[in-house]
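Name: DUF4386 family protein
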Amino acid sequence: MTTVDAHPAPTPVTAVPPPFSRALRIVAGLALIAAGLLNGLPQAVIAAVTGDIGFDEQIAWGAEHATAHTLEQTALVLSSLVMPIGLLGLAHVCRFRAPVLTAVATPLVLWGMWGFANVLAMGYVSGTVAPSVLSVDDAVALNDGLVDHPGVVATALVPHLIGSFLGLVLLGVAAWRARAVPRTAVVLMIAFLVWDFLLPSLGPVDPHVLLVVAWVWMGVHLLRMPDAAWRGAPAAAA
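Structure predicted for DUF4386 family protein:
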């Protein structure tokens, strides 16, 4: 008498990609490219034109060159929409091989981007709108009052200065360890952060040039990344 195995071995099942996985990778890559171009490029161009001037002097310059200033500030405000999307995409590809660093960096980055969006909105109001309805001196006084206001310090300046800097540095370290994107691009991003936050400017040479190259490079890498690597399979970054 023969017995029949009541529990046959399961047949292999082909893994099904998560819904919208490829679309999300493309959106993240495009968002990171757009973030670099919208945030970094206008600031680099204006710095090359005006040289090393403070925000009060930028307000006066903007009043005299309203179209150029409005275009720059509008691009910066628009960048606040795509920066978190692109950086979340970068965090996604880092989390598989640097989970702890990514888990610490991501909320800091989001907190920093929230603060940075508030900084950009404040700058648009005081630097672009105010000079069109107030005198330049009054617009400068408005900006000084906003910068000194406790609510602005708590919701804009502190989150940006702490969250953006620490969060992006940690995310850069996570990207380096995970080899999620080209390491040279990571070095450029961290170099931008150190230069922009901690070091003096170098005349018309603006640190945002480094940010443009870093984020566009990373964004292109995400666009060209194999779907399997986006979902966590090992892939060497150039």
